[in-house]
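User: Here's a structure from my thesis project, written as structure tokens. My advisor, Dr. K., wants to see whether a designed sequence matches the one we expressed. Can you design one independently, without my sequence as a hint?
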């Protein structure tokens, strides 16, 4: 196998219905890569669905000994990865061809440590909702405080940054917290305003419970060290952007 340039980390829990599409979208990317699927103790047919890929040299299936959650599963994947870059993809989302190629080109040109893309919102059955969420060509730390425009399944970042700032605090939006820490340390992220990510909406995602999601977002600002008042100001901006995003 060609030494992987990109390590794709895919946590999954009971993803048998969707994971094949996600995996195939990874292997259609024309860059040297490896895929690490971290199975968080699925009780459905996930392992059976993945069995045909087990003979691929760049496919690695890891099953957690107990249910750890998506954040800890991603962190485990980062630790076991061998690529220079890390990409995250949830098992119910998928990518368009060319995503990683363009992200690598942009990161090389801009010298940024993280790059995200725009995303098209998909119905649970995989059909388009007709809604698209854009991303700016540059996302600064201050921009991100007001609005999380970086979706986890769209991210490509240097492995050194992923190791330095693992995802933590499951009582918050741990990916948002990680992006803030990385941008504060390394500077702005790059963005590609194309719908390379197909983001499947689900009823079970924690972001779909608006009251719970609001509390988790507020905790992000508190974990970043901001006072209750400043955190509330940032949260209001975040909430207004959220209303616009899903309008």
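Assistant: Designed independently from the structure alone:
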């Amino acid at each position: 196998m060609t030494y992987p340039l990109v390590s794709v980390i895919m946590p999954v829990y009971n993803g048998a219905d969707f994971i094949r599409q996600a995996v195939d979208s990874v292997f259609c990317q024309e860059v040297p890569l490896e895929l690490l699927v971290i199975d968080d103790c699925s009780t459905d047919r996930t392992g059976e669905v993945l069995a045909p890929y087990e003979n691929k040299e760049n496919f690695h299936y890891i099953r957690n000994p107990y249910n750890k959650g998506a954040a800890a599963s991603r962190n485990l994947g980062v630790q076991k990865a061998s690529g220079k870059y890390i990409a995250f993809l949830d098992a119910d989302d998928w990518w368009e061809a060319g995503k990683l190629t363009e992200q690598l080109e942009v990161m090389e040109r801009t010298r940024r440590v993280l790059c995200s893309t725009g995303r098209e919102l998909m119905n649970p059955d995989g059909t388009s909702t007709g809604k698209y969420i854009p991303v700016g060509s540059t996302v600064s730390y201050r921009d991100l405080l007001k609005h999380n425009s970086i979706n986890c399944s769209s991210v490509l970042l240097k492995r050194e940054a992923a190791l330095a700032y693992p995802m933590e605090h499951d009582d918050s939006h741990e990916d948002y917290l990680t992006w803030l820490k990385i941008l504060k340390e390394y500077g702005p992220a790059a963005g590609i305003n194309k719908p390379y990510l197909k983001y499947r909406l689900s009823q079970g995602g924690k972001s779909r419970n608006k009251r719970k999601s609001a509390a988790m977002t507020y905790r992000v600002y508190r974990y970043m060290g901001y006072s209750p008042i400043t955190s509330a100001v940032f949260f209001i901006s975040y909430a207004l952007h959220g209303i616009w995003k899903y309008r």
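When you compare it with your expressed construct, this may help: The CA atoms of residues 95 and 197 lie 5 Å apart.
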